[in-house]
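WARN no homologs supplied; continuing
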Amino acid sequence: MIRKASRHDIPALLDMLREYRQATPLEFLKDADDAEYVGHLLHELIAGKGVVFLAEQGGQAVGMMIAGVMPSIWSPKHLVLTEFAYWVAPEHRGGTAGYRLIKSYVHECEKMIASGKIQMFTISKMVNSPDLKYQKFGFEKLEETWVK
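OK structure emitted
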């Protein structure tokens, strides 16, 4: 089941974000653990400054999609929903949780565009992520991010 997260889900989201952080290739984040900051950010996103979806199986959180609304660098009137974290627990990959998270995210974003809340939305893929075919959901590759 996919559902929008509530403030009561923040502890489970924090746990999944810790797993997500450990899997990131960005070494400097491995020790970052400011639960107060992240909890506050999640609360704001859940309250309307973004979207937070949970994938559940058997009443247990097994995946998440977290995104926040931000103004475009070109205009504060042009808002973009930017995906911050997309995670499915390794033991639940290969099933339907990841697909359903993306599908729910796209559906919600399309509603936000139709209502004028945002002008576009993004999703990213880390180099160590599974080879996901975002084109199946209507995404077009816009850019690549390089780090040093």
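The chain has a mean pLDDT of 90.
OK
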